[in-house]
# Entry
Amino acid sequence: MLVVEALLRAWRVGDPKWRLRLRLVPLAAPLLLVPLFFLLAPWRASAWFATSRALFAGERWNLLRVGPAGAGDLALLLAAGLGAALFLRDALPPLIDRLREGPDDEAAAWLPPAALQELVERHARRLSIPPPAVRVVRSRWPVFFAEGRRQPELVLSPAGLEALDARELDAAVAHELVHVRHGDPAWGYALIAARAANFFNPALQWAARAVVDEIERRADHGVVEAGLGGADALASAIVKLFDRSHPAPGSGTALDRVARRVRQVGIERRRERLVSVLPAAPLAFGWLRLALASGGLAALLYFVV
Amino acid sequence: MRDLAPLLARFVLVMAAAAGVLAAADRLPALVTGTTHGARVYRTLEEAQASVGARLVVPSYYPDSLSWPPARIEVAPGPPMVAAIRIAARHGGAGEALVVCQSIGGAAPPPPWLLPPLQQLEEARVLVGRRPARLARLLTPGGRVVHDLSWAQGGRWFTLRYAGEVEDLLRMARATERDAS
# Structure
């Protein structure tokens, strides 16, 4: 994760498409390489490998004792707890909301305004995609996202519509339709499955969040590049939706406050990128960089046991 | 092609930095504890045996004062590897009551970090089974008297350090010698 972060900075990769591809490397590495090493390089589990070949062996930290436990085992346990907390924090709330709310008659009766339908159709035409259906859900929080793989839908709540002015709504709808064009809702399902399979791995949880950020960055870039909405309007919509969908600063548990702060920093960075940064130049040697990053990370992981 | 060189140079720099950080983190515990880099710690005898790929001999005779299973098993890197099985006293007490050290794949005494050298009070030559052995009476920095009994057998070097009666130590050594034969 940190290696790819360092490579993105060292290579000054700005192209959202290549940033996303490179971000997928640390996500795919534990999913593919761990079973592959287990099958093709069983000697990595031997004392000989750990003693004389490994660059880093976690068990060596067991030489340090923390009470009755080895520091290596303890760190592994804490990392697993952190990974599970990161996963549950993102996966549980939507699941609980869905179970709690059940069928939503009131929201189903709330039809999207004709102007919104027209806006969706206009942006869909410009993006050369079939216009997705618009579904309104009841929620006290602003909801604004695209979901569905084969029949994508734009899902929103009345609070989401009320939060935005006309320019912001225009840019926000365009942003969601760019997600639809790239098939991003399917990425969402794949990411949650990868996170569930490695719920104990905090690095993978972090890598998955970084991939989500890159997907958002690509959609932001797509809106501005295609002239579907102004960067200022999109930035303003992003900030408004974030502010209204999160509890006020200082409220909630310590973990909530930390999570809010981290996300707020991310939103602020995204806003700054939208309003101040010039369009990213296409990346030269993209596939070579991807191969180097993948090979380099695989080589490092081979020597870590 | 002119852009390729800085691209590769930056890649090598990042990978070298990552490898350096990993190697430094790997050496830190040994540096802090004063042990050799490459030393390993196991919780169970089975785990240690599976990892070193050899049977670790433990005495089949134990005085009642010792607890089981071992509190900790440490393996110093080789060649030859040296394993130290640390066994605590049944009713607590300071430190371990028995340490069974044995080299694997060659006869070599345990390194000082695995079995620290102590002030020697007396030394005697004894027999463990039919094998000549060295029995040393030692004083720990805490003022406790312990005994070391060492002998070579079948390509292994055994050292038993025991804080207890010499007769019990000799019985454990004879049991170890029989089990290792």
